[in-house]
Amino acid sequence: MAEPAPSGILGIMISQRQPDGSGESESERSPLVMPEESFCRRLCAYGQSIGMLVFLFYASQAAAAAEGWMRGFRLAEGEWRAGRFPLPDVVYDRALPVSAAQARHAKEALRRLMQRKRYVPLNGSLPGKLDVYDAMRHDPALTRQLPDTRRYEGARQLAELLAHAPKGLFLKPSAGSHGKGALRLLPLADGWQIDGRDRHNRPFSRGFRNGEWAALCGWVGRFASAAPYLVQPCLQLTDDEGRSFDVRALIQKDGRGRWSFTGAAVRRGGQGSVTANLHGGGSAVPAAAALSARFGEAAAGKLLADIRGVSEISAACLEARFGRFAELGLDFGIEPDGRLWLLEANAKPGRQSFDGDVLAAGLAVRRPLDYAKLLAAGKQPAFPSTRIQRRYIQEVHP
Fold first, then answer.
1. Exposure of 117 by Cβ count < 10 A (0-12 exposed, 13-18 middle, 19+ buried)?
2. What SUPFAM superfamilies does the entry give (predicted)?
3. If you compute the radius of gyration of the chain from its CA atoms, what whole number of angstroms results?
4. From the CB of residue 343, how many other CB atoms can be counted at a distance below 10 Å?
């Protein structure tokens, strides 16, 4: 069994691979490739450099933890090796359940692990998007950055919503991710156009002519019946080529337990996509250069300053409402006139958006480990752990 490290033990829970038909137990062998392979490798390498033992594990391995040890995977000589490890001091949950059953299994596994040893969760979790929106809209410093957001209550609501949002509507699952299940409804001169991504993240497009309103309502009702949805006015969040684009900002706690802005990236959606998510075929570039090219250097600097400020206030707001966090991803939309919108928050932000930004990519790896080391040492700052100055964030209209 691996020996305890002087600076603590971090266990990272990852999504379990689907069975490959080999008959070999996933818990007994190391997979060839981990989910978030590059990120996990960098976490393990940096953990070793600061004296932390870092290992990866599945929910099933957490559920089967024994007294004082559990199975997992560690990076050794460039390869993932299965082994036995001391129970972690801190747990970093990076698993992404694809069903309610998987989510329940993961939650139960962590509960069982907690019974074996009282570890410290590195990052908290957020509820559905509508609950997050409700929390932020009560903060006066965030209200003006939030688009009107309502719970979707059925197709009978569409006509009323379109009356207040004549440019169209955007619907997305309250608990969705990666743009799956999102759709955009646009009124046209001769009917309506629906574009979106299905639950397998495949793009689709569908048109309805004037006189087919009942058919449209029926179609939307069926599409949105599998999960709670929220609805927003359709904002003009496209670039000069008509592609969807947004800004992903990453804010993380550092080794002192203080919120620090890590970076921002502009994500562009694939041709015809209603979202800019990378999982849907999008691409990402550093925000400073992309925004300067579109809005000019001065306006881009103002936008980035506001994105940073709104990110800091959002982190403090969400932590005060939902408990301690180590990092948050915030998605922003920018309309052609520079109007800034805060679209949503994510407690399990990916790292792929920052691959083109060496500084941000490095911080995105180091900061969770530095904060985990602080927690493992029992030096968790008093809650709420932020010294951010709350200030008014002005809208940008360059």
1. middle
2. Glutathione synthetase ATP-binding domain-like (SSF56059)
3. 22
4. 21
